[in-house]
Each structure stands twice: as C-alpha cells, then as structure tokens.
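Researcher: Structure prediction, please.
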Amino acid sequence: MRPWTPAVLLTLALTPAVATAQDSHAAHQMGAEPVVVTLRDYAFDAPSTLPAGATTFRAVNAGKELHHATLLRLTDGKAIADLLGAMRDGGPVPAWAESLGGPLFDSEVTINLTPGRYVWWCFIPSPDGVPHFAKGMGREFTVVPSANPRPMPMADLTVTMRDYGWDFSTPLKAGKQTLKLVTAPGQAHEIIVARLAPGKSADDVTAFAHKPEGPPPFEAMYGSVHQDAGEVSLFHLDLAPGRYALLCFIPDAKDGRPHFLHGMQTEITIR
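Model: Predicted structure follows.
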C-alpha cells in the first residue's frame, strides 16, 4: 500500500502551485502528442484501446484529492475484477499484475506497451483511509498489435533505482531532459522530485508527509511512480535552477517502512 497519509494528501491536493505541468519533451522527440490520462475523484479518463509501442502518458489531476497513474500489466488471463478481489483486504499487488511505473500528477512518463490487458490504478488513500482503487479508481484498457510500433526515444541519462538509492549515469541539470529509469533486482522503486522551498530540506518534506502543518516545504513536485524490478521507463523533466529533494515513498517489503527511511532520499542542487 502507499504510505502517504490522508492528511498530507488533502493538504497537497488543496495547495496552489504544488505541481507545475511539464513540457511535452517526449512528444517532440517521438513526433506524437502524449496520451492524456485525467485523474478524477475517483476515476481515470483515458483511452480504452491503444496501439503497441512506446507511448508517453501525461497525468492531469482534475480531482480535489491527489492522485497518480500507476500502470499495471495483467498476465495469466486476469482482469480488473481479479485485481480488485486480490487487493480488497489490503493485500500486496499480486505477481500477475506487473507494475510498469507511471506518472505522478502533472508529470510525463514513456512506457513501451506490448499487446495485452492493462489497468490504470491509484494506490493513494482518501482522508478516510480508503485507497482510491477501492472507490473505483481503476480502469482497464487493451493494447493491440501495431504494424509500426514506435521505438522508445533516446534518453539523456540513465537512473538505476536500487535498494536503497538512485545511481545517475550523469547528474541532473537545468532544462529539459529524459531519464531512463531502470529498476535493479530487488524491490520496486520510484523517484519523486520535489523543488524545495527556500531554507527547507528533504527531512522537512518527509516530516511534512507525517504531520502536514503550515505551508508545504516544497514549491513543485514531479514523479515517476512504482516500477517493478527489471522494468524500464522514461521520465521527462524540465527543471528550473534550485534545490531539490529526491524521495521514494514505497513501503519496504520487509518492515513496511517507506524507503526514504531506509536512506532513499537525497538533496541535489540544479544550476
């Protein structure tokens, strides 16, 4: 389950200018507009069928609560009803639902789609503690074969997400850039990029997540969420100069504590 608390979710959802929409860097590379996935309370507006190949998704939050769009590929002939049944009592994501990553609100991620059955899924809980998928925030769609599937665009750098940190092939920089996210053997991971407010730190962000009082300690937040080991995606960023915190909020498979408490948080300066 996602470790965001209901209080912080409500605060973030109602705080102006927390997220800034990213430019369509991937679309310019690929010669195609991104597929918009609209996040509502509690539903996804998205196509019911897509062609196979590299596809860029842009998540747009139109709800009062905070949402994300995690893309799950269903195998073994399973459908969304099976997924709801498997997770109804708070169990883990079953092995036949492969988590490919996906965009946090107002972020863009490119994923290579192969023919099959997929589900958009939101793990984030409401203020009442009920996860959004249990309120209907799941949407199944089909990927059909394509005669000319789009290749994955080139990346500017590679980020290996491991237990518990990120290894960058080259440092992040100001401006547009595409990150190739590779999850190493081990647990699933994500990368949340928060532009820090003046005088604030990554510790302030995690403290705010536990007890959201006063203004948020960050000015913007982007992210590519939950990606299983062995999966690869592209995360598109357009960073302004400033100080940033990198965080992974996924709960650990062994003790349930979010990965940032295992050291998966850091601060960087973009010049």
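Model: Residues 6-14 form the longest helix (9 residues).
Researcher: Thanks, that helps.
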